[in-house]
Amino acid sequence: MATTSLADSDPFVDPVNTASDRVYTEAWTLPVGKTFAMRTSQDERRAIAVAFYLPVRCFDAKSPPQIEADPFPEAKTTQAIPFFNILWAELSDFDITVQYAKLTAKNVVRVASVNYLVEKPQRSYARSWVAKLLDRAYGESQRKKRIKVLINPFGGSGSAQKWYLRDIEPIFAAARCEIDVERTLYQGHAVEIAEKLDIEAYDVIASCSGDGLPHEVFNGLGKKPDATKALSKVAVVQLPCGTGNAMSWNLNGTGSTSMAALCVVKGIRTPLDLTSITQGDRRTLSFLSQSLGIVAEVDLGTEHLRWMGSARFTYGFLVRVLRKTVYPCDLWVKIDIPTKGAIREHYRNELTNHALVEERRDSDDGESPGLPELQYGSITSSLPSTFTSIPSSKVGNFYAGNMALMAPGANFFPATLPSDGHLDLITVGGDISRHSAIQCFLAVEKGGFFDLPQVNYRKISGYRIIPREQKGGYISIDGERVPFEGFQAEVHRGLGTVLSKTGHLYEADGVVPKSG
Ligand SMILES: Nc1ncnc2c1ncn2[C@@H]1O[C@H](COP(=O)(O)OP(=O)(O)OP(=O)(O)O)[C@@H](O)[C@H]1O
């Protein structure tokens, strides 16, 4: 963690505006070489690092500005590097080197560097210039993260290892991260690795995989005797090497491996709600979603149609809609926010909630060092009195989400927030007209799904669901198939930890504009 005034102050206030910085920034140009200078923007915008630029004046007019919004338009030879992209800077005996992630193609960044001689009289000033640059480049994000990297050798159709070496490792290395790489050897291996992990030795567990490995990592940390501490200490992140990569899309806004690596380097620790699922005598943690009905069936029940690519989802959906399939069940829910209007208001309030990390978690009483006790009991306990019965004899889709995007472009849960202590629950009747069902399907990608009258949307913190009148079927927890039998869910506010760009929001369109 940076030890400067920046780390101590409100991260959303530009440190340039603080009194102690003002003197410094007036002299915020570092002469390098004979005829040019490096200087930072005094553009006083909000402190999330993406907004700032380190312009490097250079002789080479052939080197074009890297971004369109050049904050120094008057200087045609200026090369502007976003602060967010600065990986490291250091002063050696004679020169100063700045390494950064350079955009080399749409959605691809590669490590590049600029290097200049520093004259002897400038050295002491250059030293503080480098320190200041790193403060601005990292903000409240931890530097030199210690990362346990897990690679699913089958991820990305067998390309995960290659993508790691080409796209990810050089960025971590340039950012001076400590890296320890391990390949997963069998299903469930990531659970074991996380369970045995020395949590004092790592800050992050990064999975080069789809969403399956992060699910295993949360559950491995959850098996530790000091699970609550482990889940709050070690951040779980994804380097997208699967097909859906929901975790990376929600937290980094990208499915690109190299850009996700940069986001991990610059990521801000963010508490994440986790949900305990009890089924039979098992308790597992879910970080992404639970579904029963058309989404689960289309996801898990069309494996034999993989040859169709993503068209299998459209095909599977249309077949079930045309048949007006219903999935009868008994459903009881702990409803926290019942209406779309109130949900919108809740979301609007959260946009400006910059509470500290530890204030975004349920308090840890220290008495149960393992997973938190279940306040609603398990699926085998008597039904909690705070649960309300919801008629569900004709449900077509039961879908509970903890993140907004379930895949790129599939913003099912636009009102989700990482640590508001709620799951978002969607229920849609299976007996609605075919036209209404297709309207739902199209609205997920085009936007407007949340507002459709046939979509019931609630914020909840627990539920019990028991399928009935069905011989078999599909239940999906974070995209993994579990037995087709009743289960109970309970949300734990901020139990897990991830890295995100903002520290409190997902990178998806919400239910009110984020600027408003
Ligand atoms: N070496 C291995 N052999 C077999 N299975 C493995 C191995 N390593 C990991 N797995 C399993 O692969 C599964 C899929 O993991 P991953 O996170 O890559 O994907 P996914 O979410 O299923 O992927 P996709 O997004 O492509 O559908 C997990 O259940 C994991 O346990």
Number of helices: 14
Number of strands: 22
Report the span from N to C terminus: 31 Å
Residue ranges: pLDDT <50 for 5 or more in a row?
A: 1-27, 42-77
How many strands, which pairing sense, and closed or not: the largest β-sheet? Answer: 11 strands, antiparallel
Examine the secondary-structure arrangement and name the CATH architecture of the largest domain: Sandwich
Produce the secondary structure layout.
Elements: H1 5-8, H2 19-26, E1 29-32, E2 36-39, E3 53-57, E4 78-82, E5 86-91, E6 95-105, E7 108-117, H3 123-138, E8 146-151, H4 155-158, H5 160-174, E9 178-183, H6 189-196, E10 204-209, H7 212-222, H8 227-233, E11 235-240, H9 246-252, H10 257-266, E12 268-279, E13 282-286, E14 289-293, H11 294-300, H12 311-322, E15 329-337, H13 340-351, E16 388-390, E17 395-401, E18 423-429, H14 434-446, E19 456-467, E20 475-477, E21 480-482, E22 487-500
Parallel strand pairs: 8-9, 8-10, 10-11
Antiparallel strand pairs: 1-2, 3-4, 5-6, 6-7, 12-13, 12-22, 14-17, 14-20, 15-16, 15-19, 17-18, 18-19, 19-22, 20-21
Helix pairs in contact: 5-10, 6-7, 11-12, 12-14
Organism: Alectoria fallacina
GO molecular function: lipid kinase activity; phosphotransferase activity, alcohol group as acceptor
Domain DAGKc: 142-281
